[in-house]
Each structure stands twice: as C-alpha cells, then as structure tokens.
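Supplementary notes (optional reading)

For those who missed the lab, this is the record we used. Protein: Sucrose transporter. Length: 494 residues.
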Amino acid sequence: MSQNSQNSNNSSEDDKPKNIAVWRIAMATICFSGIQFGWALQISQLTPFVLLLKLPKSLVSLVWLCGPVAGLVVQPIVGALSDRTRSSFGRRRPYILVGSIIVVFSLLLIPNSIEFGRLFGDSSDTTTAALALAVIGFWLLDFSNNMLQGPCRALVADMVGPKQQELGNSIFSVWLAVGNVTGYIAGWVNWSYYFPFAMSSACTEACANLRVSFTMSIVFLIITVALTLFVSKEKTLQEVELEQGGAEQPKGNAIVNLFKTILIMPSSMKRVCLVQFFAWFGWFAFLLYGTDWVGENIYHGNPSGTRSEIDKFNEGVRWGSFGLAGFATVSLFVSPIVPYLTRAFGVKTIYAIGNVCLSLVLFAPYFVTKSRYAVIAVLSFFGIPWSITMTIPFAIAANSAPEKEKGIYLGILNIFVVLPQFCMGLAGVIFSRFFGPNIIPVFIAGSISALISALLVFILIIPNKMIDHPRKRRASLSTIRVKSTSPETPYLSV
C-alpha cells in the first residue's frame, strides 16, 4: 500500500465521528423534559382555563394558532441564526438560555391572569382583562417554547454522528415522555386540596390548580435547562469551520437563506416534510381537543354552564389529564425500542405502522361514549405512534442536513409540523359552526389525514447512512440507490 493511500485511510478514520457517551447525550437532551412538562400542562389545562374565562368555544382553535405562528416565524429563524452564531458559549446554548427566561415569565403570567385582571377593572362577572392577559401569556409561552425547541434538537444533532442520530432522537423521545408523564399527572392532581392557600377570592379551584402546577413547571425547567447548559459539550462555530477546512457560513439575511434552503434541500427532506404535514393534522386534533372531549362528551360537562356542569367538566378534564399521563407512560417505554424496530423491520415499515396506529386511535372516540377506563385506554394508545413520530422524521432530517445547517433543517421540518395547526385552527371554527360542541368530527378528519400520511411514507427517501446495520439492509432490499443533491448525503436509499 502506498504512503498516500495509507495517509488517506488514516485521515478517513480520523474524520469519522466518534460515538458520544449515552449519559452525555442524555444530559444534552434533558432540557426537553422541562420544556415538555410545561407543554403537557398547556395541552391539558389551557383550553379548559380559557373556556372558564368565558372565551367562546368557536374561538379556542384561533387562540391555539399562536403555536403555528411561533413555529413558522420563530423556530426556523432561530435555527438559521444559531447555525451562524459566533459565541464562546456555543451556537445553541445562548438561545436555550434566553428562551428559558421568557418561558418562566409566561408561566408566571398565565395562572395569575385573573388576579392581574382585577387590577385592570375585572369583576366577579367580567373576565375581559384576565382573558387578554392569559392569551398574551399563552402566545409568549409558545413563542419562547419554539425558541427553545429548535436549538435543543440541533444541539444533539450537532453532537452525535450519523450512526447515533436515531439513538439521540430516541433518548430525546424518552425525555419527552418523562416531561409528559410528570406534566399530565401534575394536571390531574387536585392541588387546591393540598395547597388551599393558592386559592383566593378571584382564584378558585381550577385557577389554584393551574397556579401550583405551573410553579412546579418553572422549577423543573430551571433544573433541566441548567443540566443541559452546563454538562453538554458544544463546539463553537469557529471550531466547526476549522474541522471543515475553514468553510464559511452563508452570508445574507437569515429569512432569505431559509427560503433558499427550502428550495434546494434534498428530496429526502422534502418528502418527510410532506408526511409530517398530514400526520400532524391528525396529531393536533388530539392535542387540542383531547381533554375537552373527556370533559364534554364523556362527562357531559359544560365550562360555561351551571355550577354542576362546570364541576363535571373539570372532573372530566382531570381524568383526561390522567389518560394523557398514560399516553406519556406508553411513549416512555416504546421510545427506547424504536431504533431497534427500524433496524429489524425497516424505517418505512415502522413509520407507516405508527401513522396507521394514529389513524385508528383517532377514530376510536366515535365508539367511546361513557366508560372512563375506555377513555384512559384510548388516550394511552396514542403513546405508540407518538414515540415513532418523535424519532424517525427528525433522524431523517438530521441525516439529510449538511453539518453546519442542522438547525435550519430541523426548523424547516417544524414548519410542516405547525402548518397543519393552522389548518386545524380554521377547521375547528368550521366544525364548531356545523357540529356545535361535538368534537368527534374533528377526530375523524384527523384520522383520515393520518391515514394519508401512512400511505405517503412509502414515497420517502431514507438517507443511506441511516441503513448501516446488516439487518437494516436485509429489511431494505427493495431500495435503490440514487444520487442526492446534498454533498453531505451523496447516496440515498429510496
């Protein structure tokens, strides 16, 4: 063997990304457990809370449009900016720190909105100011959560090599589940019984429960974000450029670069975005109306009705939160095995099965009308497709992205997570007009959309470096290798 050839082989070995210790990946991703604790409370508690503040039900889905607006504006732009940030603290961590501070402010504003509303002229019969403050806090929370999510995802994508991307996203999903379990249980417990001092003349039982659980969320977020910031090792942009021969980041406006990237990104990325769009239309039917379905359709409560109807609604919401804790628990156990399932049966097969499961479980509420235990079973079953949705598409995106553009690629993927929420927000207004308070038609529409996403899985292009295990290759014998438009992923398996 020639000296040049030997040097080339040595260089090739040196360039291979080294495996990161699992505990370090866990610490880099633990911040999302804190984020998800608050998100679980938002999912289970905020729709009932704004209904108690006398927001018309037909407008609830419009309030939730803060999520897609934040996802469209904040996460892709923060992803693009963090890709180019030259800070000694790293590229991602400055945004995680600032986003956390804004989240804490939002979590203080929302549960205290009734008290603050009294300062602005609200009475026991009017809640206009409180509702406005709660919605402002709601929007701030979603904007700051999106500021956190993109850099948290990109941080682990930066740290690990192609062979550990699925592992990284699997650990990420485990922390998601931990945050969900604790958050939904916090939403289920009647905290006003244990902390009666949280109540006041303005802040009754439901408000006090929100106040205590949001305080817990603040503490949890501070601890988990601190662990991520101080334990994870992040390369600065200067170090990344040196490793890649001094190549510079693209110049120009972040928004312009975002749209340029969307136009030239590889087909593997474009197709997974399409699958995400239809899958997440189904997911938002569940996330926006899950606990509301239990409170109104199962417990026959009414957030704007008599005292007895309001109590029934609150009881249903609490049991809906308990069912969502079951959903998160199932996800906690399924998430770690997703990488092994994809190796054994293939990425497309597992992804398609996950979306078929989502379609079936979204249709199940049509048959469930009374049983509390059937409700818990249905909500818990959502944990299976959730584990797959939180792992596979993000691994595809991370493996499709050039090394220095992982933040912007993950931000683009998030655009196709939040666009369906726009559609669901508008659909919610239409369904409310035609079907009144009945939420079942929304679930059926989501079920149809999830089924479409399952069919679209089979047009996906899986980055070839995700298929590095012999069992994966046997599961993918029907694939063909095609030239990619990305120099980072020269060959893709179709």
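If you only remember one thing from this example: The first helix runs from residue 3 to 15.
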